[in-house]
Amino acid sequence: MVELARSGELARHVMATVTRVAAGFGLGVFAGTLLGAISGYWELARRLLDPTVQALRAIPSIAWVPLFILWLGIFETSKIVLIAAGVFFPVYLGVMGAILSVDRKIVEVGRTFRLSGPAMIRRILLPAVLPAYVVALRVGLGLGWMFVVAAEFMGASEGLGYLLIDGQQLGKPAQIVAAIVIFAILGKTTDWLIEIGSAPLLRWQDAFGRSAGAG
Amino acid sequence: MLVLNALGKIYPNGVNALERFSAEIRLGEIVAIIGGSGCGKSTLLRAIAGLDRASSGTVTLDEIKISAPHAKIGIIFQEPRLLPWLSVADNIGFGLSELPAGIRRPKVTNALARAGLAEKANAWPRELSGGQAQRVAIARALVAQPEVLLLDEPFSALDAFTRRDLQDHLLDLWADTRPTLVLVTHDVDEAVVLADRVFVMRPRPGRLFEEIKVNLARPRDRHSPLFDNFKRRVLTALDRSLDRNVPDSDSKSTTGEAMWW
Prior knowledge:
The complex is a heterodimer. By secondary structure, chain A is mainly α. Chain A contains 9 helices and no strands. Chain A starts with a helix and ends in a 17-residue tail after the last helix. Chain B is an alpha/beta fold.
């Protein structure tokens, strides 16, 4: 059955899903990073923005689906926005929290050497925030994969989520298992890509489970 | 010349941390500030550094008023505060980023060698011992060739051997360019080993209580009777600053206690 699906159909479904996740993830990361950075760096913005964002976060993202479909239609836009909404919150929280928890003592070193605002961001804040940012990206990506399934359950004509529904309705358990296995592979691979991509930037970390350092 | 004129600091919560502190410190002089906790010694140092603003009074360095961190003033904290994402060499060069690499690199290499850490150039800060990390912090501050170097209890987190080692190392580096050193400490031994003058401060509100000149030639022998004599004078002043009874002559012989809390 799995072999049957590999006739080329499967590639089309995988591509559809990956494209949606990529677009939604990109959008969510962009918005989450931007707003998270603003409210982490700027006290006034945090007071204005953060309560609203936190309230929105309390709403289960799936609850937005009917509204997104009404506003944005049943096609790609609503799906991508739903995925982006899922990715946005962990990234936003991660970035804001990371900026707020940057060690004041390290910032003081920057002040002692009279770093300008942009230099302070580039040379102190960015590297200090990076480890938490990578974690936020990985959490966001995981949610992205979760939400793509939800999005594709709401009436899609292609994609792995569609394969799941289709398999259920036509009584094809093998097709369902195939889709699940592919989700596992895709999820793990993309997570691994983030990990590999960030590893060279995080070699300096002294953490539990990192035994690379020469004591 | 570093001139402190009637410096005062009242924190927003009403604590009067420092009151009318005045001093003139010559270029190349080493001054130790010592006192019980809450005597405003760290407040004073942060005001000189331009990190916190004094509520009243002024700090001037060579006639220039200091109200923000200044290129001629370096500071070393109790913790090394190295940037964990930079190698040891890049940490030392952190304050020199405006210089072209051709000028920066030899300076950093030289500073590394002076710190005795040439082979650690590419190590991460986490791979250093406490003493090594503080050496890097000293090198980072001195490589920018400040006129005044402020030290806020720089060795208090280190063990006794490492502390002595770093005191000697600091004097050694000081001899190269002879910047002014202003050192906050609560170690009487450290104050007498390093300083030309010891300012004893009194808490609540933080004020200058007594000034003791240590006219001993360097290098100073920590075991000489003269050295002990100065230590005793500082300890006595400290006791009086806290309104404690001055120990009588019998108990004086046991005042070899190095740490003052």
